[in-house]
Automatic annotation (TrEMBL):
The lineage of its organism: Bacteria, Pseudomonadati, Pseudomonadota, Gammaproteobacteria, Cardiobacteriales. Gene3D superfamilies: 6.10.250.2250, Cytochrome c-like domain (1.10.760.10). Residues 73-250 form the Cytochrome c domain. This is Cytochrome-c oxidase, cbb3-type subunit II. It comes from Wohlfahrtiimonas larvae. The chain crosses the membrane at residues 12-35. It comes from the Bacteria.
């Protein structure tokens, strides 16, 4: 048996063994990438669409589309603020398949839910609660007040306040460029009719309309106005974008009681 002392004194042997260890580590990191598509669950939902038949009569049809969609322009900029402010340092977005986490946070996270995240926000620390399913759990007003002064709604909270987010206007003039950059990474934002039609087939027309790069600013402004994410604030604030992002987390797919059985094969 080779002693550690012999390896340290023999530079050639140490070099060879170092290369062997690095190669093994590299294979462990690289090989799974060739099977990454097999790790993403197929998550569908049913939608109802209206069309006209040959006689011009309205016909309602149902079909399945992908439940997990890319973020809208407003949600994406809110996500950027989430990352900028370091929220990931205290909040994870990955519910593990354990009974105690299911009881506290809800159904465990699916790989499909992070497929459009660059980078993903799974996190590794929970100074605060997991946020994977926080969307819709609280009102927009609660979220904005909590971000301004956490102790106004949670007296024992140790979270710092972010009141300036409501004072800062959201800069979104470059949102189209941002979406084009994400498109290069594989996020299916559409820049032509062919890509738009593919999104209609994949997500449905309502979602596809939100993913058109050329309409990004109009879609952002409309969502901010309709959503009223920062109540009482005129214009679009950084707070509104961040709340829009938080309110969508975990809401794209509605789990059923038996979904744990269906998706357990991926765990």
């Amino acid at each position: 048996m080779i002693r550690h002392e012999q390896i340290e004194k023999n530079s050639g042997l140490m070099l060879v063994l170092t290369l062997v260890i690095i190669s093994i580590g590299g294979l462990i990191e690289i090989v799974p990438l060739f099977f990454i598509n097999d790790t993403i669950e197929v998550v569908k939902k049913e939608i109802t669409e209206t069309s006209r038949d040959a006689n011009g009569k309205r016909v309602r049809t149902k079909r399945e589309v992908d439940a997990i969609r890319p973020y809208t322009p407003l949600e994406q900029l809110g996500r950027n603020i989430y990352i900028r402010e370091g929220c990931y340092a205290c909040h994870s977005q990955q519910i593990r398949p354990m009974q105690d986490e299911y009881l506290r946070y809800g159904y465990y996270s699916l790989a499909a839910e992070s497929q459009f995240d660059h980078p993903f926000q799974w996190g590794s620390k929970r100074t605060g609660p997991d946020l994977a399913r926080v969307g819709g759990k609280y009102s927009n007003r609660w979220q904005s007040e909590h971000l301004k002064n956490p102790r106004s709604v949670e007296p024992k909270s140790i979270m710092p306040g972010y009141p300036y987010l409501s004072k800062n206007d959201l800069y979104y003039k470059d949102v189209k460029s941002h979406m084009k950059a994400l498109r290069i990474t594989g996020v299916p934002y559409s820049s032509n009719d062919e890509e738009y039609k593919a999104n209609v087939e994949r997500f449905g027309a309502n979602v596809a309309d939100l993913l058109v790069i050329d309409n990004a600013i109009e879609n952002l402004e409309k969502q901010a106005k309709d959503g009223n994410y920062d109540p009482g604030r005129e214009g679009i604030s950084e707070m509104a974008a961040l709340v829009a992002y938080l309110q969508v987390l975990g809401t794209m797919y509605q789990f059923k009681d038996d979904d744990g059985i269906e998706y357990s094969k991926f765990r």
